[in-house]
Amino acid sequence: MNITVVGSGYVGLVSGACLSEMGNNVVCIDTDQGKIDGLRKGIIPIYEPGLETLIRKNMASERLSFTTSIEKGVNHGEVIFIAVGTPSDEDGSADLQYVKRVAQSIGEQINDYRVVVTKSTVPVGTSGIVKATINQALENRDLSISFSVVSNPEFLKVGAAVKDFMKPDRIVVGVEDDRALDILRNLYAPFNRNHERLIVMDVPSAELTKYTANAMLATKISFMNEISNLADCLGADIESVRIGIGADPRIGYSFIYPGCGYGGSCFSKDVQALHRTAKEASYDARILSAIEAVNNDQKRVPVNKIVDHFGTDLKGKKFALWGLSFKPDTDDMRGAPSRVVMEALWEMGATVQAFDPVATDEALRIYGERDDLTLFSDTPYDALTDVDCLIVVTEWRVFRSSDIDQIKSKMRGNVIVDGRNIFSPRTVTEAGLSYYGIGRQ
Asked: How far is Cα 83 from Cα 88, in angstroms, rounded to an integer?
């Protein structure tokens, strides 16, 4: 098929690359000329395992191309994916200005039947807005052209997005007519060869499914973080609790690892947007309001433990930070706990030596050159020289088998604040270091 993807951010690039890998002819559109110029040269603006290889391969095979021309994209694609950003507005609702702008452009350029697919994460009712916007643009042109609007939310995990797209656990499609459904079935047929993954429903249900999935995952994380704080108060070990409840198949082990909070662009934004949707429907969604409150507090837990140990005057103190990205296998620092921790340390007068395998450039872009920040990306031990305390913020695999003796020898202090519970408290304390975990004794 000829496919157009409007938006060359995280979702758009992954979707375009993976659809072209299945033999489709894909055109990706973005209004950022610099980004498009870079993509044409094989410069990928985000770090995502496997994505660069996939893009380069399909560009070489001429199945994947990039442009700033919406006219070219609308004329090209039998299916047009809207994959632009929907950032949080001031009131917490999803900002739909970019989605509306794309819908307007489609209506101004469309000349034949098209399936318009909302891939962006959007609140319930957005597909109706897209449909009305296209219809209004057609009316302004004094034209009557048939088209379909479909909701097809993405369920991609940052750090595993290519794998998730190529081998999805489900493909949710909200659709109103059989013609569009047949086209989407044909498009996704290569992803269903093993077994049927397509879940067909009405459009509002598909839009709500995406928000509900992220809110549920965020709920599990915040709930376990709440219990980890209670474990601290009661002298319990949250790791034992985690294993005890995870063995229950009704609960399972996924997303019940306590830590210093979740980050990224999705969970916080989507929980806030769903909460706003509930308010607009005159429903008091009390759990949704608590999820974000707990998570925001959780990001400060490592800081609280540092203050309990060192006090609030950290002038002359030096801290090693392991991990800058909000999770492993990405350079994304949006909403990352590392930012809360670093900024709090700087405010109290401390300096930071941070290590991350891929996110140091992003940290430099955000904070610029600072006298109180030194960045390392070769080995985590580089960041430990003469520090008073090591803080683990992101659970990169490279940290899992760290040499405690080497850590101790590099540090001038003896404190580890383990924001992801990657160390054994016993191993750390037997090495003569003070250990502060999340809900661990």
From this structure: 16
